[in-house]
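Hi support team,

I've been running sequence recovery on a batch of backbones for a student project. Most finish fine, but this one hangs at about 90% for roughly twenty minutes before it completes. I'm not sure whether the input is malformed or the queue is just slow. I've pasted the structure tokens below so you can try to reproduce it. Let me know if you need the job ID as well.

Thanks,
M.K.
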């Protein structure tokens, strides 16, 4: 791979928290309706600095890059907070459509329709690393079984 000359990384941190992008938001909506969902997204935003920002900034910084968080820009947060929750997400719609709806609609307007309809996939799942770990566990267990049989 060739070296990257970029010094700044734009992250999507804050979009899921403000636009009901996590599966727990769907569960909350089903149990407590729009009012519960609104309360949950406000709590998410309130604790984002203690849960994500420090860790993510350190990881990015360890790679010689500087992080930017556009969804946590004061004007973006203020705008999103001015909207009712049903304008930001519609969790009666299927997964991959209803969460972060306002962002998906903006993506369609910008000509990114194919990307707009992809369901969220967490980075550690999106990389398929968990699949590889599972395969390695199976191989390891098979090797252990073979070793035991050989010794018997």
């Amino acid at each position: 791979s060739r070296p990257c000359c970029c010094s700044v990384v734009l992250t999507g941190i804050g979009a899921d928290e403000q636009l009901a992008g996590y599966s727990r938001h769907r569960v909350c909506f089903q149990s407590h309706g729009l009012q519960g969902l609104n309360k949950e997204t406000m709590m998410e935003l309130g604790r984002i600095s203690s849960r994500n920002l420090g860790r993510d900034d350190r990881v990015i910084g360890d790679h010689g890059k500087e992080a930017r968080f556009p969804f946590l820009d004061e004007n973006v947060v203020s705008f999103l907070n001015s909207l009712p929750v049903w304008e930001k997400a519609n969790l009666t719609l299927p997964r991959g459509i209803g969460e972060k709806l306002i962002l998906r609609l903006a993506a369609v307007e910008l000509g990114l329709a194919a990307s707009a309809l992809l369901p969220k996939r967490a980075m550690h799942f999106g990389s398929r690393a968990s699949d590889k770990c599972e395969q390695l566990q199976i191989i390891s267990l098979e090797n252990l079984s073979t070793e035991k049989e050989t010794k018997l």
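--
Follow-up from support: It reproduced on our side and the slowdown came from queue contention, not your input. The helical segments are 15-18, 23-62, 74-82, 85-88, 101-109, 113-116, 123-126, 129-151. No action needed from you.
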